[in-house]
Amino acid sequence: MSRRYTLIAGAATIALILSGLWWFASRPVETGNSAPASNAQPTDGILAVDARRAAQMGIRLMPATAAADAALATIPAMIEPPANARVAVAATFPGTVLRTLVVEGDSVRRGQPLAIIASRDVLTIGADLSRANARRGVAEANAARLSLLSREGIIAGARADEANAIAAEARADVSEKSRILAMVGGHGASGSYTLTAPIAGRVTSASIQTGNPVDGTTAPYVIDATDRYEVVGQLPERLIGQVRPGMSVRLLPNLTGRIVAVGTAIDPATRSAGLKAEIPAGPGVVAGRATSIVIVGPAPAGAVSVPDTAVTMIDGKPVVFVTARGGFAVRAVTGGSGSDGRTVLLSGIRPGEQVVVSGTSALKALATAQ
């Protein structure tokens, strides 16, 4: 009986052992790397990121474009009004102000009336013009009559010639007085003339009031041109010979000007030469303000332009992420200069390649983690 129980117990033990072995064999093995592999693991030098993950990372692409020009240097400069940019408008003849048409701070166009002034001199010129016109009429009629008599042989030709000379003198007198009145905007009948703006700009001084006297030695108005300015800077010695008149300069955010003069003498103290450029009027362009300008020259062959946000640093070197099959590749580049939110790259990227301009920080974190 005991032998029978022994056999039954042995069979039960074997069954339990077999069951345990089967349970351990069918149980999944857990390891420290049991989590699913990320779709951003590098494969053959590529950061494998699918479209769904790229959208989650905020990745946005733009094509690299061939660079036509490149920034050579950024130099400090001072904004100045150009020569002949400030004009004093003087009263041509003494008189009394009848009416003022603009005030200080007004913008004016060239030829725009500024004030009307009554002047005895203009009245006198108007009277002289009337008398000169009358003399011209008489002289021309007399010259025509004597010329006819001379052609018929009734009088000597010298008398006709003398009459023609007197008529020509009368016409010249009329022309001179008419020209004087036209130059000052005068009206002989009313004895008044009009001050006009010789240039377009802004009235920066208006020392004139209705009823006040003016004379020919004062300037009731001062006008500053506001459509153009000059920037004067110091060109570093290393760029002398590379920078020439006619090249472009940029004044941020979006003003473009032209270099008009480059000095050839080097200042021993600053090791630089003078540079002068013309720029148009724009926001923030004020005479006397310190600024900086970007000197622009032709870009080297093969250079491309990309947004500033496309370039990042890994291990202290500039890189750009470009699209590749299965994800994105890290491309080492040779950085150039930049301006207006774009960077010129001298090597590493070809025109037309799609570069990452948004989401670069996320790709950088994946690249540096490997």
From TrEMBL:
Residue ranges annotated for the CzcB-like C-terminal circularly permuted SH3-like domain, each copy included: 304-364
UniProt KW Cell division keyword: no
Pfam families listed in its UniProt record: BSH_RND, CzcB_C
Coiled coil residues, start to end: none
Membrane-spanning ranges: 7-25
Gene3D superfamilies in UniProt: 2.40.30.170, 2.40.420.20, 2.40.50.100, Helix hairpin bin
GO molecular function: transition metal ion binding; transmembrane transporter activity
Residues annotated as domain Multidrug resistance protein MdtA-like barrel-sandwich hybrid: 87-220
Keywords: Membrane, Transmembrane, Transmembrane helix, Transport
One GO term (biological process): copper ion export
Matches recorded under InterPro entries: CzcB_C, MdtA-like_BSH, MFP_Cation_Efflux, RND_pump_MFP
Family: Belongs to the membrane fusion protein (MFP) (TC 8.A.1) family.
UniProt name for this protein: Cobalt-zinc-cadmium efflux system membrane fusion protein
